[in-house]
Every structure is written in C-alpha cells, then in structure tokens.
Design a protein that fits this description.
By secondary structure, this protein is mainly α. Helices cover 44% and strands 4% of the residues. It has 5 domains: 8-119, no CATH class; 163-254, no CATH class; 329-376 and 390-515, Serine Threonine Protein Phosphatase 5, Tetratricopeptide repeat (Alpha Horseshoe), CATH 1.25.40.20; 517-523 and 535-616, Ankyrin repeat-containing domain (Serine Threonine Protein Phosphatase 5, Tetratricopeptide repeat), CATH 1.25.40; 621-708, Serine Threonine Protein Phosphatase 5, Tetratricopeptide repeat (Alpha Horseshoe). It has a 4-stranded antiparallel sheet with strand order 1-2-4-3.
C-alpha cells in the first residue's frame, strides 16, 4: 500500500524509493497491515484494488489477484527473454478496465452485488465516493508545479561561512547586507582584529550601514548581543566605541528594495470599493513576496534590554555598558532585576540588588541580596559563622516595589541550596507557592538556576510542577527557555520515579510533557527551539508516548520540532529528531519546510543534513516560494551554492511570478544573483533576465521605479 507522501511524479522515476506498507496474508484473499518500509519504485509491477473490511483487514478482489499472477508471469518471461511487448499491452488494458470494488457499507443493492460476486460499484453516493478520482491540475497549477528533487551531498564540504567562516574580509561591491554580517562573524569567531578593522577604518565601514544589524530574519541577535552572551569585553568595547564615534553619514545607506510587497489594504466604512483587503495575503494562508522581505523592516532588540535577559551577562559588562552608573536611575530597573533573575544570573542580580538596597530604593531589603551569596566567609576561622543574620518569616517574603520579587524567589536561583533551606524552614510551608507580579513561583526561578540542586530541593518538598505563570509557562518550560538541560533532566527523572521518593511515575511525567505553553508549544518544541539536544533525546526515548516527534504547535505557525530546530540552526537537535523519525518535509501552516527555514537563516550545515535525510530540494510554500527563493532573497551564498551543487530548481516562479534570480537582483543580493547566472549562459541567461512578473513588469522597470 503506497503511503500519502508518494506522489505521481515519483512513480515515473527510476532511482526513487517510495514509502509503502506491507500486508501479511491471513486466509484466502484477506490481508492485514504489517509494517512500513521504503522500496525502489522499479519493484512495483502493477496496481491492485483492495476492499477494506475493517481498520486493519483488507480483501483482495479476484480480478486484482488474476492481474498479479499475470504480471508475475510476464515479468518472469521478460527476464527469461520470452514474452514481449504484446503481452504488456494486454496487461495495461486489463488494468485500465477494472474498477475499484464497492464498499461494504454501501446500500442494500450494493451488498447484494457483493454477495453475488459482482465487482461493479454501486450507483449510489456511497459507491461513487469509494473511487475518488485524482484532482486534475489547472494549466496554471501544472505550469507552476516543481517536480520533487532529492540528492545526497558531502556535508563536510559546507559550512555557515557568512557567520562562522574563517575567511579574510573582502569587498562586497555594494551588497550592504552581506557586509553587515561581517560584524556578527567577527564576534562569533572571536576575531578581534577583523572587528577592529570593521569599526575603525573609514574605507571599510563605508560599506556597512550599521554595526548592530541582526544576524538573520528569525535570529534577532546583533554583534553586541553575542558579545554580551560570551562576556567578550574587547568586542563590546569596540562596538560601543564605533557606535559613539563613527558619523552615521559616513556609513552606507541600506539598499532600496525593488521587490514589491503586498499590502492587506485598509478598511474604510465610507467607500464601498476603495482600499479593500487583499484576500490572498490577509487570510493567513499566503504571504507572497512578503515572505522574502522580512529583513527589510525588522529591527534588532535594544542592546541594553538584551543584557538583562542574557544568562552570560556579567558585572564587568554592566560597568562597560553603563560607565557612569546611570542604570540605578532607570525607571524600569525593577523589571530588569526580574529578567536577570528569571534566566538564573544570580551573580549579576546580587550586585544590582545590593546596590539598589544601599541606595534605599525599589523596596529591597538586605535579605534579598544576602541569599545570593556564595557562602559564609570562613577565612578568619569563623566556621561557626551563621549563614544568615536572624530574620523573621515576614522578611523572607518581603515584596520589592512594583515586581513583588521576594527573597524566597532569589534564594531559588542560588546554586548553594543552604540559603533556600534556611528560608524554607521559616516560611516555606506557608509561602512555598508565593508568586511575583508575573505569576512566577520559587519553582519557576529554581528551574532557571545554573545548577539542578534548588529544583531537586523544591521537588522533594512537593512544589507544584504544573504551576503556570501569566504567560502559561511551567517550571519545565522555564528550564528549557533558559537552556538549563541538567535541571530539566533532573526534573523529568524525578517526576518519572514512582512512589514516595519520586514525583508520581510515568503517567505524571507524560502529563507534564503534554502540557502546552505560549503559542501552543509543548516541551518537545521548547527543547528543539532552544537547542536542548539531551532533553530532546530523553523526551523522544523515555516519554515517546507523550512527546510526538512530529507534533505541531498551536498558535499561528503550527510548527513541528524539526521546523523550530532548523529555523534556529541547532544542528544536534536536528540530528536527534531525524534519528527518531521526524518527517523531513513536514512544514508549518504556510508549508514552509525545515529546509526552507534553514536556508532562510543561513544554516548551511543544517541544510546539508536535511538534504542527506531526504528533504525535497524543490519544495515550495503556500505562495510557491521555493527553497532557492529563500536562499537567494536573503543573500546566503553558502546555502545557495549547496542547492546548486545538489541540483535544485533555480528558475521556478512563485505565485506572483518572481524567480529566485529576480528576487536576488531586486533586493540587491549581488553575489547570489551572480551565482545563479553562472549556472546558465547565452540565450538561457538572456531568457531569464528578460523577466516579467504577474503584472507584466520587467526587472528594469521595477529598478527604475525605485531609483533615486
């Protein structure tokens, strides 16, 4: 039985493997499903009709059985050099004349025919529905359809050269976006010499438009963000100096994008037929060219806001970003302290809270920062020094101004659990589930701690692992968002342990794994999106009944774990998901496959792994944007070179009539355009340059329309 992912084009190829389900013979002409397998399409001799008796039992019709026997006889004769073309024609005519059997649930008239052995279907509605004819493609659909293409590449030859390459800086001849990525590459590869050249030499930074451009459309990190995450003080200092001293007028202007975008229109009640919505682009089913323009309007996150959300932010980086200490006067300082605490950065929180408490602001008391100490000072021989000065229960739950952050919350992010134990002994039984202003309990804060011990302590004291924040986050989701794999694994293993020493057994952990958070995401989606490969392996191995490798998230994206992992470039997570049977071409709501999102964000190594796993090189989304459209439009030459080497289709049009070459040229991605043109020459090259979109506009017209 052919599976749903087998297309008619695959049956016409010689070197393709198709997905089938084998059937075991039980008695007579009856069969039952056995197992799935991939077989060569050349091993298929003919098609047969089977009558479905129930969910697992099928019955072979007599005519189909006779056809199978004739096909086997003719195949043996051909192998032996016997029967030739005439017998083959008879077989094909017999195949075309047979109709599918009537279903057993048809009318009484149909049941009577079945009892008499008549193979003709019933004329009633049920009989007609049993033989659904394949939908005939329109001329436009047939012209736009791209045959599937699968290949194998040498993955070791490809790398994400735009952001992780070790090549020297070269001129980009007006490709401003590619030049901006050099700043990110210099920080990620810790090439301080290259970064110094980019930020201090006028002839070099004249090719850049900004020093804080984000890495890719879906990874909204700038060079300074990565410097903060890695505590790279030298790179951060160069970037801050360039941002302060370089005259912005000496930088290059962002290129004018001539690729037309699509507006959903503006509703008005005064005119009946004026500015009506563009239905195809506004109903959530299509994006059109807008899917290729996400890098033209997006802006990176504010540098200082990212600092408070980074687990790697340090006090030294804080001093560099705020040299005069003006952060103490920031009106949103209370919220910033909570952001740092929720990612487990207890050292930064300790210094900030201590400074704010000494200045007498924000409602912090001494216990807020004392519970974040590494341990009592015993250098002078004071082994009997108390861990904390005497305090009352009310001090352990003292609320900070605006945020309701309490010492009990902060004690949960300290890897030294003695402070948490001391506060719990005084106030834990009554206030163990106390919340801050966003609904975070001590268990949520402990989940983001850099060590699993606070989480283990709270689980042993029966904290609520199903508690939700205002944004629907559970402690497990908080641990995965913060990248705390050790804590997440400790939590899952504790809950999976039955009896009084554990959290309830496999039934409870399955329920925890099935819980959905923001955007309808489950634990498997959080692990794939944040690069937690070990947790992903555990979920798919030990919680396979609850964690579906192909589960779709909720919200507006309907993304699978493989889609999220490929989008963020987590190579190890992609490897784990593929090893556990993830469907490599299963896309999101807009039919964007993992391969599309990988090349869209420049993850060439991930793309190579997906291609070797059988990803369709010619897949296209709901707007007929192909894989090559995404690679060319966003200017990733390494990904586009991979597609060229693998034999992907480079000249298909999307729903608005644009080919990848036109998208690259209209967005001024010169290197990608030259790479595509290098694949053809002569008349073929002129043919594709003489391009017209759905409205009849040429590339020259579109460029002149946007010229200054």
């Amino acid at each position: 039985e052919l599976q749903d992912d087998v297309t008619e084009d695959m049956l016409g190829q010689e070197d393709v493997s198709v997905h089938v389900t084998w059937l075991n013979k039980t008695s007579g002409n009856r069969y039952e499903t056995a197992y799935d397998e991939h077989v060569d399409v050349g091993s298929i001799l003919c098609h047969v009709f089977l009558r479905e008796l129930d969910e697992t039992t099928l019955e072979l019709t007599p005519k189909s059985l006779a056809r199978v026997q004739r096909s086997l006889a003719r195949s043996k004769a051909r192998l032996a050099g016997g029967e030739g073309r005439d017998g083959l024609l008879d077989e094909e005519e017999e195949e075309d004349n047979e109709r599918p059997p009537a279903p057993l649930t048809s009318s009484s008239r149909g049941r009577k025919r079945h009892a008499e052995g008549d193979e003709r279907p019933s004329r009633g509605g049920a009989g007609r529905s049993g033989a659904a004819k394949p939908k005939k493609l329109s001329k436009r659909e047939a012209a736009m359809h791209i045959p599937p293409k699968r290949a194998t590449v040498d993955a070791s030859k490809y790398e994400d050269s735009e952001v992780f390459g070790t090549q020297s800086f070269a001129t980009f001849s007006g490709d401003v976006v590619s030049a901006n990525r050099e700043v990110v590459r210099a920080v990620l590869t810790k090439n301080v010499a290259l970064l110094k050249t980019l930020t201090t030499k006028p002839k070099v930074y004249a090719e850049l438009s900004a020093f804080n451009s984000q890495r890719s459309p879906d990874i909204k990190h700038s060079a300074l963000h990565y410097a903060v995450d890695n505590d790279d003080l030298a790179s951060a200092a160069l970037l801050l100096q360039a941002d302060e001293k370089v005259n912005k007028q000496h930088l290059a202007a962002m290129p004018d994008v001539a690729l037309p975008a699509h507006s959903t229109g503006q509703h008005t009640s005064r005119f009946s037929d004026y500015n009506r919505r563009a239905i195809n682009a506004s109903r959530g089913g299509k994006e059109g060219n807008n899917a290729l323009l996400e890098d033209t309007s997006s802006t990176p996150m504010q540098n200082l806001e990212h600092f408070w959300r980074s687990p790697g932010a340090t006090v030294e980086m804080l001093t560099l970003l705020y040299p005069t200490g003006e952060w103490t006067k920031d009106y949103g300082m209370g919220a910033n302290v909570c952001r740092a605490a929720r990612c487990g950065n207890f050292r930064l929180v300790r210094k900030v809270v201590e400074t704010l408490e000494q200045n007498g602001g924000w409602g912090f008391n001494a216990l807020h920062h004392q519970v974040l100490a590494d341990g009592p000072d015993v250098s002078g021989g004071g082994e009997d020094t108390p861990l904390l000065p005497p305090f009352r229960a009310v001090s352990a739950i003292k609320q900070a101004s605006q945020t309701r952050l309490r010492p009990l919350h902060l004690a949960a992010i300290n890897p030294n659990t003695k402070y948490l134990e001391a506060l719990w002994a005084v106030a834990g039984d009554e206030f163990g589930a106390v919340k801050d202003d966003q609904g975070y309990e001590p268990a949520h804060y402990a989940a983001s701690c850099e060590a699993p011990e606070p989480m283990i302590f709270l689980m042993e004291h029966r904290c609520n692992l199903f508690a939700r924040t205002k944004t629907r986050l559970t402690p497990l989701m908080c641990a995965l968002e913060a990248g705390r794999e050790a804590t997440a694994l400790a939590l899952l293993k504790f809950v999976a342990t039955p009896g009084e020493s554990g959290g309830g057994g496999q039934e409870v952990v399955d329920k925890l794994v099935r819980e959905r958070g923001p955007g309808g995401k489950q634990a498997v989606h959080f692990a794939a999106s944040h690069g937690c490969a070990q947790v992903l392996e555990y979920l798919l191995t030990e919680c396979s009944d609850a964690a579906d490798v192909n589960a779709s998230s909720g919200g507006t994206t309907k993304a699978t774990p493989l889609v999220l992992a490929a989008q963020q470039g987590h190579l190890e997570c992609v490897r784990v998901l593929l090893a556990h049977g993830a469907r490599v071409d299963l896309g999101d709501k807009l039919k964007k496959t993992p391969l599309m999102l990988a090349v869209k964000n420049g993850h060439t190594r991930v793309a190579a792994m997906l291609i070797n796993a059988g990803a369709n090189l010619n897949a296209y989304d709901s707007s007929e944007n192909s894989v090559a459209h995404y690679a060319a439009s966003y200017g990733w030459t390494s990904s586009l070179q991979l597609l060229c080497d693998a034999g992907a289709e480079l000249w298909s049009q999307n729903s608005w009539g644009f080919v990848p070459l036109a998208c690259a040229l209209l967005k001024q991605r010169r290197a990608c355009a030259e790479l595509i043109l290098a694949q053809v020459s002569g008349d073929a090259q002129r043919k594709f340059l003489d391009f017209r979109d759905r409205q009849g506009r040429t590339m020259l017209f579109l460029q002149c329309q946007h010229s200054r």
